[in-house]
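> call design_seq(struct)
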């Protein structure tokens, strides 16, 4: 496949990323509101694996891609799926401790780390406008997480929340930055739809093993309790992931990941207006800073 290391965001990739961001914030909203356990996502990824089975009956598509997949693709896919599993477990733990409008924006601060990994490992070169835009995105995300809109709060988070959700949300952010770069490399080697199936298959196995070792909520009990919700989130999660993978084929991973953080706006808004969470002033101030960063990224070369 043609390399897209040198490409900035195209109008089509911006549209794909914006739709992906809206869907991503939606399934996180439902996850927080439902307070779903880790075991819930074994079934989500099992459904995700089953969604793609018809592609195996299309001549020259999944069967051939599976047989022709290079060893490097398998290695990077397994690594990406393990890191995505870490991301998801950390995110769920953070949601069990704190509000959506606090946890979700912090977990979306991956652009800061993605920029470093993309430059170091896959040779991307960013423009000054792009770098400044990414910086504003990250600043905006952290302002959204402040307890109130004062500089003091940046260094002294809300005392009503323990450091644990911040830690788990930050682990999710770092994990997100790493697997995004791995995904970028993988979709340059194979079709995004096939890669999405492969990640679903691997994460289904990993989440299943993790759930069995935890021995807390029975997998069958979780399925019986949340059948409809599992199916809904499986659809949303796969749609969001497929769209961002397609965008990565067209544009630089640093810009795609940064622009996708518009989901922080959606997530904070869902938390404030639907879940009636607090700190709306800092959330809205951060949203304005983040939006400015997104505009700069959109015009970056």
């Amino acid at each position: 496949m043609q390399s897209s290391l040198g490409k900035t965001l195209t109008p089509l990739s911006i549209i794909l990323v914006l739709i992906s961001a809206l869907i991503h914030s939606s399934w996180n909203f439902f996850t927080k509101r439902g307070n779903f356990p880790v075991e819930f996502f074994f079934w989500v990824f099992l459904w995700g694996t089953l969604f793609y089975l018809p592609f195996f009956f299309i001549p020259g598509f999944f069967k051939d891609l599976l047989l022709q997949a290079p060893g490097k693709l398998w290695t990077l896919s397994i690594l990406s799926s393990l890191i995505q599993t870490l991301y998801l477990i950390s995110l769920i733990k953070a949601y069990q401790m704190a509000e959506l409008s606090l946890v979700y924006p912090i977990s979306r601060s991956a652009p800061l780390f993605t920029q470093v990994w993309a430059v170091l490992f896959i040779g991307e070169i960013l423009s000054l406008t792009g770098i400044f835009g990414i910086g504003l995105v990250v600043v905006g995300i952290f302002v959204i997480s402040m307890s109130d809109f004062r500089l003091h709060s940046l260094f002294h988070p809300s005392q009503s929340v323990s450091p644990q959700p911040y830690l788990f949300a930050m682990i999710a952010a770092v994990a997100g930055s790493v697997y995004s770069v791995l995904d970028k490399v993988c979709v340059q080697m194979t079709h995004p739809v096939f890669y999405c199936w492969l990640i679903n298959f691997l994460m289904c196995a990993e989440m299943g093993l993790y759930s069995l070792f935890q021995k807390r909520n029975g997998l069958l009990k979780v399925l019986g309790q949340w059948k409809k919700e599992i199916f809904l989130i499986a659809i949303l999660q796969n749609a969001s992931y497929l769209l961002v993978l397609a965008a990565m084929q067209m544009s630089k991973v640093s810009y795609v990941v940064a622009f996708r953080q518009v989901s922080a706006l959606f997530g904070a808004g869902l938390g404030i207006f639907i879940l009636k969470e607090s700190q709306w002033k800092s959330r809205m101030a951060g949203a304005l800073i983040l939006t400015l960063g997104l505009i700069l990224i959109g015009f970056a070369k």
